[in-house]
Design goal:
Distance between the termini: 89 Å
CATH topology of the largest domain: Cytochrome p450
Structural class: alpha+beta
Pfam family, one: p450
Number of helices: 22
Protein name: Cytochrome P450
Cofactor: heme
CATH class of the largest domain: Mainly Alpha
Shape: globular
Keywords: Heme, Iron, Membrane, Metal-binding, Oxidoreductase, Transmembrane, Transmembrane helix
Number of domains: 3
GO molecular function: heme binding; iron ion binding; monooxygenase activity; oxidoreductase activity, acting on paired donors, with incorporation or reduction of molecular oxygen
Strand content: 5-15%
Oligomer: single chain
CATH superfamily of the largest domain: Cytochrome P450
CATH architecture of the largest domain: Orthogonal Bundle
Length: about 575
């Protein structure tokens, strides 16, 4: 092979040089294969490739470079790797340092995380822009799929094939039916409290709050989803609870793991436990019976006579999808994901509010008196009464602000080069950049929440709402309301769809708890609630924390004042 390809002989312009390079690579490769390559030719080839690869590297670097301040990168070798390790155990500190430094100027900043560089927004207007941005320009599900690399572990929501019709089930079925399902939450919540906590009026009884919260939340939610007796099936509830906890953990572990380990970690962390298969074994008879009922009734009668629960909602939604989504196992997957949303975050929120009130007991009696007066006015445990418990609502919103189950929200990835045009400091980022909003840092901003932003003030929002004349303006400070400055449930088109159910459920469960029990932190806590932990940007309460409970003497009269609480739950 003595000649270069003819097209590469005259490198007198860019295209000619490219052809020359291709021809040279081809020729020298053939010489390597034929054993004809001498040391001079090898040296020439190496010298040729150094600037070529260098130029390509510079091009790629400039193409992907994020022209923003970088935070938390130590000097010296492997700085970004060391910063990513620091983020693992001190993410809140890293984000807060960047926020304090750049928020006043409205500048975004970049942090090295174990999986990637992340851009954090500080300007509320830019947070709003991110929240409302087109999914064709800044992808929400694309970021979710990339971060949650565990594929079939979390199917059917994530992975290469995304089908989130269970989100539509929550929007179209669960939220509009809140008024009709509140009695089920009340009955099963009361029964679960009664079964989980054996307290008397004479002595204080200690309880692990997380264990109580899991039972009360899981049972009351599933009374609405699957009804009696399945909502009390402890094996099924344990599967739902384990899946909720494991799914939250595996997302973060897989995100920081090398790709080569994904199959093994997927099996180790999730697949080997066969949670969907175990849930399907228990739920299959219920789904089979409901499908048979649907067929026997026919379309017209089915619409008027079908049961009002998640089994029906999922079957109806699946019927509009392709056949692969209509298997019982796939539909049980949807039920598991609805439970994931309902159990984990709501149980954690229950834990937070009980810890917060335990550490701030001066709020308990005013909330209790509001509950009684409002239910007297509106006739008991109904949606209208819950909507008018402004002090309780304020405490829940403050607890979410102060604790915030997810510390970073609205995480998206740019699908093209994108320019943030709003805010004090507009900026440009390249395609493939991950962008997010620092919820906890935003919630602790003194510019937004005042000089007492770091203090838990239960009536922070009710004090403001009580002075407002406009009901519409007041509604913007409800616990379910999101904004560019209040991100507990995220914000924008991908805000948490289940937040209305979660808040109504929390209110109903707290009514029972506060009216029936006195509770306090143990003396050895010194009035301080158990500290929260932060792992990979996710805030978690201490699940080993204990409260002491005692039944109130007033409960004997209150439990029947607006209709029996039905502690047997039937």
């Amino acid at each position: 092979m003595d000649q270069l390809p003819k097209a590469s002989i005259a490198p007198n312009e860019a295209s000619g040089y490219s052809n020359h390079l291709v021809g040279l690579v081809y020729t020298q490769t053939m010489q390597i294969l034929e054993g004809k390559l001498n040391n001079v030719t090898l040296l020439y080839l190496m010298l040729l490739f150094i600037p070529v690869y260098g130029a390509y590297g510079v091009y790629k670097y400039r193409k992907s470079y994020i022209d923003l301040p970088y935070v938390g990168i130590p000097s010296g070798p492997f700085g970004s790797w060391r910063a990513a390790y620091t983020y693992l155990h001190s993410s809140a500190d890293v984000i807060w340092d960047g926020y304090k430094k750049y928020a006043r100027e409205g500048k975004a900043f970049v942090v090295s995380t174990p999986g990637r560089w992340m851009v954090f927004l500080t300007d509320p207007d830019q947070i709003a822009e991110l929240a409302m941005s087109s999914d064709q320009k800044i992808g929400f599900y694309e970021a979710l799929t990339e971060r949650n690399k565990h594929g079939t572990i979390s199917e059917p929501t994530l992975g290469d094939y995304i089908n989130t019709y269970h989100v539509d089930v929550i929007k179209a079925q669960l939220t509009p039916r809140m008024a009709s399902i509140l009695p089920d939450i009340r009955k099963e919540g009361a029964a679960a409290w009664n079964d989980s906590l054996k307290a008397s009026t004479d002595t204080w009884t200690r309880g692990v709050v997380w264990d109580i919260a899991l039972q009360v939340v899981a049972r009351s939610a599933n009374r609405c989803f699957i009804g009696l007796p399945l909502c009390r099936n402890q094996e099924l509830l344990s599967i739902f609870q384990e899946y909720a906890i494991r799914a939250a953990e595996v997302v973060y572990i897989m995100d920081i793991s090398p790709k080569i380990l994904e199959p093994f970690l997927g099996w180790l962390l999730m697949s080997r436990h066969k949670l969907p298969q175990r849930a399907t074994k228990i739920m299959e008879p219920a789904f089979t019976a409901r499908l048979r009922m649907r067929e026997e009734l026919g379309p017209t009668r089915w619409e008027t006579e079908k049961p009002n629960d998640a089994i029906t909602w999922i079957i109806d939604a699946a019927a509009k999808k392709d056949k692969s989504q209509q298997t019982i196992e796939q539909m049980v997957w949807r039920l598991m994901w609805i439970n994931f949303a309902a159990i984990h975050t709501t149980s954690m929120s229950t834990l937070y509010i009980l810890y917060d009130l335990g550490a701030n007991p001066e709020y308990i009696e005013p909330i209790r008196q509001e509950m009684i007066s409002v239910m007297d006015k509106y006739g008991g445990y109904n949606k209208e009464a819950l909507n008018n418990m402004v002090k309780l609502d304020s405490c829940l919103r403050e607890s979410q602000r102060w604790n915030n189950v997810v510390s970073v929200v609205i995480s998206k990835v740019t699908l093209c080069d994108y320019t943030f045009k709003s805010g004090k400091a507009p900026f440009h980022i390249p395609k493939g950049t991950f962008v997010t909003a620092p919820a906890t840092a935003t919630h602790f901003s003194e510019d937004i929440y005042g000089s007492d932003a770091a203090i838990w003030k239960g009536f922070r929002f009710s004090d403001v709402r009580e002075k407002m004349e406009s009901a519409e303006e007041s509604a913007r400070l409800q616990a379910t309301a999101t904004s560019k400055e209040y991100l507990a449930f995220s914000h924008g088109k991908h805000a948490c769809t289940g937040r209305f159910f979660a808040i109504y459920q929390l209110k109903m469960l707290l009514i029972y708890c506060l009216l029936r029990y006195e509770f306090r932190l143990p003396a050895e806590c010194g009035g301080k609630r158990p500290e929260n932990k932060i792992i990979l940007g996710r805030r978690a309460a201490d699940t080993d924390g204990i409260l002491e409970f005692r039944e109130r003497k007033e409960w004997a009269e209150l439990k029947c004042r607006w209709g029996d609480f039905d502690e047997d739950g039937e």
